[in-house]
Amino acid sequence: PRVGVIVVAAGSGSRLGQPEPKAFVDLQGRPILEHALLPVFGLSVAAQVVVVAPVAQLGEARAMALEVAGVAAGYVTVVAGGATRQASVAAGIAVLEPGIRVVLVHDAARAFTPTHLFETVIAAVEASGSGVIPGLPVADTIKRAVDGIAVATVDRSELVAVQTPQGFPRQPLADAYATAIAEHTDDAALYAAAGHPVIVVPGDPLAFKITTPWDLRRAEALASAAPD
Ligand code: CTP
Ligand code: MG
């Protein structure tokens, strides 16, 4: 395949506060990771899907990915993650097949991300040759606060709330990861630190990240409303 999708699912989910790692928490009868993989395997383009899972859940993740993949099963790869998200992404990059030209990195915790957002990001990487991130306008007024004092109101028109999947041309991404020294907040920051351009495409509210128990309640409402 020409496209690789790395789904990082190796985090513990400390803010969610459930006993199992976040991607394996049940959401209306199926784990969060399974919800997240459904739209990925809905892609019309052939893709290698790399699931990065905790060591203790490798078998569970493999079974889940193969079940969701169906006939596309040959393109599923499952690897163990690392101590940080960045280390988990690096583990995913390490197992990409040789022919892959475009790499998407996606949080399993964004379980309702629609297939069209993956397609938009792939198309934008191919058209631009740049890194591509989905972003949404920020709804709240944002202020800079120092020691409890509001010192400035940030110009909201310049801000975007960034989501995944984030897409990149394969070789510059692999090189940026191979030479990264610092820990970066997202893949695009690591990519930009290596000197590469990153463009923003419209995100989707459904690509929100399940982070807190409140997010899980919203996700439960969405999962119970889903027609599948
Ligand atoms: N992730 C990962 N490996 C890590 C840390 C995070 O693969 N060492 C993944 C998570 O599984 C998640 C995504 O990165 O799908 C986004 O991270 P986040 O929402 O922060 O998940 P956790 O790190 O698991 O949650 P928390 O920060 O609350 O512990
Ligand atoms: Mg985290």
From TrEMBL:
Gene Ontology MF term list: 2-C-methyl-D-erythritol 2,4-cyclodiphosphate synthase activity; 2-C-methyl-D-erythritol 4-phosphate cytidylyltransferase activity; metal ion binding
Positions of the record's site feature: Positions MEP for the nucleophilic attack: 156, 209
CC cofactor: a divalent metal cation
Region (2-C-methyl-D-erythritol 4-phosphate cytidylyltransferase): 1-228
Keywords: Isoprene biosynthesis, Lyase, Metal-binding, Multifunctional enzyme, Nucleotidyltransferase, Transferase
Highest taxon of source: Bacteria
Catalytic activity: 4-CDP-2-C-methyl-D-erythritol 2-phosphate = 2-C-methyl-D-erythritol 2,4-cyclic diphosphate + CMP; 2-C-methyl-D-erythritol 4-phosphate + CTP + H(+) = 4-CDP-2-C-methyl-D-erythritol + diphosphate
Enzyme Commission code: 2.7.7.60, 4.6.1.12
Biological processes per GO annotation: isopentenyl diphosphate biosynthetic process, methylerythritol 4-phosphate pathway; terpenoid biosynthetic process
Presence of keyword Phosphoprotein: no
Site (Transition state stabilizer): 15, 22
Pathway(s) served: Isoprenoid biosynthesis; isopentenyl diphosphate biosynthesis via DXP pathway; isopentenyl diphosphate from 1-deoxy-D-xylulose 5-phosphate: step 2/6; Isoprenoid biosynthesis; isopentenyl diphosphate biosynthesis via DXP pathway; isopentenyl diphosphate from 1-deoxy-D-xylulose 5-phosphate: step 4/6
Keyword Nucleotidyltransferase attributed: yes
UniProt family annotation: Belongs to the IspD/TarI cytidylyltransferase family. IspD subfamily.
Role according to the record: Bifunctional enzyme that catalyzes the formation of 4-diphosphocytidyl-2-C-methyl-D-erythritol from CTP and 2-C-methyl-D-erythritol 4-phosphate (MEP) (IspD), and catalyzes the conversion of 4-diphosphocytidyl-2-C-methyl-D-erythritol 2-phosphate (CDP-ME2P) to 2-C-methyl-D-erythritol 2,4-cyclodiphosphate (ME-CPP) with a corresponding release of cytidine 5-monophosphate (CMP) (IspF).
Protein name: Bifunctional enzyme IspD/IspF
Naturally occurring in which organism (per UniProt): Lacisediminihabitans profunda
Source species taxonomy: Bacteria, Bacillati, Actinomycetota, Actinomycetes, Micrococcales
Name of the gene encoding the protein in the UniProt record: ispDF
